[in-house]
């Protein structure tokens, strides 16, 4: 009963001796106990289909105060014999939200939660389509775990791709930095050719390195010097 750890199980799912009339009958849910008026959390999230007294003909006759919600797989989770309900029909609940309080309403011999899972939501909220609550929740949570693992794998793949893109950008930036540093070194070199200094003077390149227009200015000066030298 791993999914119901912390609860006292007073009657499991399956055949049993009826506690009221003593006959052998099939118990369609599992009886769980904490303490009277204990706030009952939803074992899974879903939409509330029914919240109120389960009178004859509703699919909850004899179940006292009931909250029934449908999960994302279409199964109906029934919380029965509640002292009072804490939700309304149509309300969307998350796992852990309080549906009501442990009680002993309806056909009951003492305060407990009759928790039942049904495979259908109609007619009569799937009355008669009950499944083993323990087995269903175990498979449900396994599916959630696998979905979470798949999401983690997808995130890890995205992170790896981003790391690759970042490394490429870093490599490109480093290459540009190396090119800029090489150009700066060339521009900062004062041992320029004699013919260049003859045309423009020894101070021609001062300030070129420290300005955004520096490289363009350098090559303009070089081109002009080349043309002048070719003429002369």
Topology:
Blueprint: E1 8-11, E2 14-17, E3 24-27, E4 30-33, E5 39-41, E6 46-53, E7 65-70, E8 76-82, E9 84-85, E10 92-93, E11 98-101, E12 113-118, E13 130-131, H1 133-188, H2 194-200, H3 214-231
Antiparallel strand pairs: 1-4, 2-3, 4-12, 5-11, 6-7, 6-10, 7-8, 8-12, 9-11, 12-13
Helix pairs in contact: 2-3
What report would you give on this structure?
This protein is of the alpha+beta class. It folds into 2 domains: about 1-130, Glucose Permease (Domain IIA) (Distorted Sandwich), CATH 2.70.70.10; about 160-230. Helix content is about 35%, strand content about 25%. Strands 1, 4, 6, 7, 8, 10, 12 and 13 form an 8-stranded antiparallel sheet that branches. A 3-stranded antiparallel sheet has the order 5-11-9, with no helix packed on it.
Distance between the termini: 100 Å
Number of helices: 3
Largest sheet: 8 strands, antiparallel
Radius of gyration using CA atoms only? 39 Å
Give the rounded overall mean pLDDT. 85
Would you state the CATH class of the largest domain? Answer: Mainly Beta
In CATH, the topology of the largest domain is named: Glucose Permease (Domain IIA)
The CATH superfamily of the largest domain turns out to be Glucose Permease (Domain IIA)
DSSP, total strands = 13
Q: Tell me what the CATH architecture of the largest domain is.
A: Distorted Sandwich
> What is the beta-strand fraction?
15-25%
Order of secondary-structure elements: EEEEEEEEEEEEEHHH
Low-confidence stretches: none
Fraction of residues in helices?
A: 25-40%
Class of secondary structure makeup: alpha+beta
């Amino acid at each position: 009963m791993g999914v119901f750890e912390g609860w006292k199980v007073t009657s499991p799912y399956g055949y049993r001796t009826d506690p009221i009339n003593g006959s052998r009958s099939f118990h369609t849910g599992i009886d769980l106990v904490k303490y009277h008026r204990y706030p009952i959390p939803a074992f899974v999230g879903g939409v509330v289909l029914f919240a109120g007294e389960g009178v004859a003909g509703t699919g909850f006759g004899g179940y006292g105060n009931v909250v029934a919600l449908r999960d994302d797989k279409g199964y109906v989770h029934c919380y029965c014999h509640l002292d009072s309900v804490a939700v309304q029909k149509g309300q969307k609940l998350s796992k852990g939200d309080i549906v009501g309080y442990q009680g002993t309403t309806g056909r009951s011999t003492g305060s407990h939660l009759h928790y039942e899972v049904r495979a259908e939501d109609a007619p009569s909220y799937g009355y008669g389509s009950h499944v083993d609550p323990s087995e269903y929740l175990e498979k449900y949570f396994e599916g959630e775990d696998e979905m979470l693992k798949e999401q983690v794998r997808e995130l890890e793949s995205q992170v790896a791709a981003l790391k690759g893109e970042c490394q490429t950008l870093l490599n490109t930036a480093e290459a540009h930095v190396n090119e800029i540093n090489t150009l700066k070194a060339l521009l900062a070199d004062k041992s320029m050719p004699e013919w260049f200094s003859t045309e423009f003077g020894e101070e021609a390149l001062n300030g070129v390195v420290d300005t955004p227009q520096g490289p363009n200015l350098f090559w303009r000066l070089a081109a002009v010097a080349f043309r002048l030298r070719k003429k002369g």
